[in-house]
């Protein structure tokens, strides 16, 4: 029995990177092959460099948790639920997440880890039956998360550079891309093919690509925080919805077409402390605590991104718990800071609209 033996005395059939020496047949002594310095150097060149805690765990986890929800749905959450319930939602979300993180830390530090991520850890702790079934669910969750991220990127690109779908005049000279359902599908397919090419090259190109994306995300978040202090009060033109626009057809409630970015004001904060659930701007459905919580919970997932890189880490038992906990604490602070800043500077009309974008008052 070795460190890689399942804790419930199941025997894993194989391991990707595990190579155990077998005893030689009876009557034959162990064969020793001399290895020269040239062969050692060639073997070292063939073995790829392993990733550190920061590049292998912290950055993938941060990018998975800093999803499109950060830039597209923070205003939606605070606008409907208010600041108090928004903070309570984050506490509830991260309580659920921390239970999973602590379990991952316990399993990853209790013996040797190998390639396979969550499947390997669960298989080693509970056996291949549980590991296989839960691994399939993780696979499907990653597929859905990938679709969410790609669609969020396409939505931001179309809203920023696409021609308005309602036939109105473009408000920016950069709005030149054709828009529509099939065009969005085409853009999403292109983005997904680019992701496939990066993953097919290998984990090291993936690590370099994620680091560049991490720098871009941190730069954009920095501009968002600076804009809260640098941009003065202004009036924001709210986007129209081609799928649900009662102002056009004359049915249903009327929605505001403009909103105010007031800057930091005490009156704005006091008016945004309590919940005020209204109809969703694009669907016309009444929002509740459960629906807003479900939308925002997508932005707090992705904690297994670092664990899935276990086969490419220098020391998985050391890197996974420290990197994952660091990323969780950092994202929790950023989410709450953004909620407080939005509640202090944006009125209820601007924040209750689902399609509010930070760039509406960031790049001004």
TrEMBL record:
UniProt keyword terms in alphabetical order: Membrane, Transmembrane, Transmembrane helix, Transport
Region ranges (Disordered): 17-44
InterPro entries named among the record's database cross-references: AA-permease/SLC12A_dom (IPR004841), SLC12A_fam (IPR004842)
A GO MF label: potassium:chloride symporter activity
Top-rank lineage group of the source organism: Eukaryota
Cellular localisation: Membrane
GO terms, biological process: cell volume homeostasis; chloride ion homeostasis; potassium ion homeostasis
Topology within the bilayer: Multi-pass membrane protein
The family this protein is said to belong to: Belongs to the SLC12A transporter family.
The name this protein goes by in its record: Solute carrier family 12 member 9
């Amino acid at each position: 029995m070795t460190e890689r033996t399942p804790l419930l005395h199941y025997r894993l059939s194989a391991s990707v990177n595990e190579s155990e020496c077998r005893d030689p047949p009876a009557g034959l002594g162990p064969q020793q092959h001399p290895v020269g310095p040239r062969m050692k150097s060639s073997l070292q060149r063939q073995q790829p460099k392993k990733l550190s805690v920061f590049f292998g765990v912290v950055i993938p986890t941060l990018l998975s948790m800093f999803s499109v929800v950060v830039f597209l749905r923070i205003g939606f959450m605070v606008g409907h639920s208010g600041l108090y319930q928004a903070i309570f939602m984050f506490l509830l979300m991260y309580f659920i997440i921390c239970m999973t993180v602590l379990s991952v830390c316990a399993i990853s530090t209790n013996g040797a880890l190998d390639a396979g991520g969550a499947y390997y850890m669960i298989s080693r702790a509970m056996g291949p039956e549980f590991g296989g079934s839960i691994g399939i669910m993780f696979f499907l969750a990653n597929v859905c998360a990938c679709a969410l991220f790609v669609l969020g990127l396409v939505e931001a690109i179309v809203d920023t550079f696409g021609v308005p779908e309602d036939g109105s005049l473009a408000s920016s000279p950069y709005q030149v891309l054709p828009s529509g359902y099939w065009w969005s599908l085409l853009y999403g397919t292109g983005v997904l093919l680019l992701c496939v090419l990066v993953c097919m090259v290998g984990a090291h190109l993936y690590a370099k690509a994620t680091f560049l994306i991490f720098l871009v995300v941190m730069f954009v978040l920095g501009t968002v925080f600076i804009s809260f202090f640098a941009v003065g009060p202004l009036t924001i033109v709210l986007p129209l919805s081609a799928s649900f626009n009662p102002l056009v057809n004359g049915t249903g409630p009327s929605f505001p077409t403009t909103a105010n970015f007031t800057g930091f004001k005490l009156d704005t904060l006091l008016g945004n402390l309590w919940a005020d659930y209204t109809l969703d701007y694009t669907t016309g459905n009444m929002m509740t605590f459960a629906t807003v919580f479900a939308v925002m919970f997508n932005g707090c997932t992705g904690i297994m991104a670092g664990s899935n890189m276990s086969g490419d880490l220098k020391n998985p038992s050391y890197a996974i718990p420290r990197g994952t906990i660091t990323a969780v604490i950092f994202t929790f602070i950023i989410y709450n800071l953004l909620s407080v800043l939005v509640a202090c500077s944006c009125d209820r009309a601007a924040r209750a609209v689902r399609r509010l974008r930070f760039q509406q008052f960031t790049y001004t």
